[in-house]
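Q: Please design a sequence for this.
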């Protein structure tokens, strides 16, 4: 990929020379490949390249942003002119500006963001892996009757950033994923489930046969689902669901939500919001992390941020704008694309591991629910109240027995986190950058028949 650092620095110099008080230039480029196969036939085959450049200018407290995908010299000159004209008519805001100069820089530890081997894998190899994934899944059990498709996706990306406070940085990263969704049928009733794998490195992906088999196993396991009566019982959260609750907390801890006072964590800094066993970290310096980076979208050096420590809310998650609005610390959580200004974004957000084996955690439940899926978006970001469709497996005497369907889970995000009774030791980032171990919640309301 082309090195854009000199171009970005030259545009910064041109903007300052033309009268900008401050500015930055962001360039992103990405080469991608996607394919989807269903029932052995290729339904999608796409190779893409996207490159764009964004200018952000500050003048007398106002901010203006423009972008282009055309890098011709005249186009860039015109873009500089347009941006400087737009900022003259933009409304001033005292919270506008670059990130604090003393926080700019690059994390120099080991991140391992780039796998050169991905570029060497041919489209034919990728298609072959997707075929294998679907074929193994379909052959797993005669009750697997259909497929919603199997997919491969990968990208090779580069980010370049320069600003008028002297920051210039650039890094490359890779990511690849495979997924398959299968349908199982028994006595005329169909159930669907899926499995997937993410990694920055090709050799870190689960094998295609493993992904296909797991998707099929999960689909077959859902057959014979039963309804249960409405009741309040202990609930074990599968790691995918635990991760969802960590994601819900991020939405409330985001500086954007807090300064708008549209969050249930307003005025909660320093207060206990979760069980004392819970610590939640946002770590952009995690080696091999799917959302790791040497610097954020404003050039702030990446770091490890403790959001919740032993149940106490320690920090909101802020970019520089929301930090100024809150009088808070900038913590390197600005995400960005070339066509939009920075905004609050998590990196590798996770709940720290517990000490209990997952099977022992399940065995401790005499009568309860093992929750594997939530449907819809029934979460109130202002109050934290939850009401979502759900499914899972009923636990009897410490064993997973039959699948449960057509239930509703009701509660509150903070109450769920406060009622965590045990945390398993199975934290994994294999399926995303937001992660959590299996959790045992002492009690939740399950709506049934």
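A: Design:
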């Amino acid at each position: 990929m082309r090195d854009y650092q000199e171009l970005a620095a030259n545009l910064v110099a041109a903007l300052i020379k033309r009268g900008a008080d401050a500015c930055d230039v962001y360039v992103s480029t990405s080469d991608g490949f996607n394919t989807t196969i269903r029932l052995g036939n290729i339904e999608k085959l796409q190779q893409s390249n996207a490159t764009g450049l964004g200018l952000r200018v500050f003048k007398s407290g106002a901010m203006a942003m423009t972008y282009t995908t055309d890098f011709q010299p005249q186009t860039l000159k015109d873009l500089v002119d347009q941006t400087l004209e737009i900022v003259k008519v933009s409304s001033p805001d005292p919270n506008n500006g670059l990130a604090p100069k003393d926080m700019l820089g690059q994390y120099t530890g080991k991140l391992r963001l780039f796998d050169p081997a991905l570029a060497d894998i041919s489209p034919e190899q990728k298609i072959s892996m997707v075929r294998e994934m679907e074929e193994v899944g379909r052959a797993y059990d005669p009750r697997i009757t259909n497929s919603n498709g199997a997919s491969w996706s990968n990208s090779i990306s580069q980010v370049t950033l320069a600003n008028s406070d002297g920051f210039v940085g650039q890094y490359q990263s890779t990511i690849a994923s495979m997924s398959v969704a299968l349908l199982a049928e028994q006595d005329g009733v169909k159930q669907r489930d899926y499995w997937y794998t993410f990694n920055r490195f090709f050799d870190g992906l689960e094998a295609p046969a493993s992904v296909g088999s797991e998707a099929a196993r999960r689909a077959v396991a859902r057959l014979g689902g039963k309804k249960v009566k409405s009741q309040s019982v202990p609930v074990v959260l599968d790691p995918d669901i635990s991760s969802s609750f960590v994601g819900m907390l991020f939405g409330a801890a985001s500086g954007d939500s807090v300064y708008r006072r549209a969050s249930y964590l307003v005025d909660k800094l320093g207060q206990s919001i979760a069980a004392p066993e819970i610590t939640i970290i946002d770590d952009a310096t995690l080696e091999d992390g799917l959302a790791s980076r040497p610097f954020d979208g404003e050039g702030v050096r990446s770091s490890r941020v403790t959001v919740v420590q032993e149940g106490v809310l320690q920090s909101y998650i802020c970019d520089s704008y929301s930090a100024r609005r809150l009088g808070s610390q900038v913590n390197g959580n600005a995400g960005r694309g070339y066509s939009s200004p920075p905004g609050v974004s998590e990196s590798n957000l996770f709940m720290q591991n517990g000490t209990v084996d997952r099977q022992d955690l399940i065995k401790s439940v005499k009568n309860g629910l093992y929750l594997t899926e939530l449907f819809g978006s029934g979460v109130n970001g202002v109050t934290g109240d939850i009401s979502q469709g759900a499914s899972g497996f009923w636990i009897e005497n410490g064993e997973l027995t039959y699948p449960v369907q057509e239930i509703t889970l009701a509660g509150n995000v903070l109450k769920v986190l406060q009622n965590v009774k045990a945390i398993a030791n199975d934290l994994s980032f294999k399926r995303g950058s937001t992660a959590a171990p299996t959790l045992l919640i002492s009690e939740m309301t399950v709506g049934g028949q």
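Q: Thanks. Anything notable?
A: The longest helix spans residues 73-88. Residues 245-336 form one domain.
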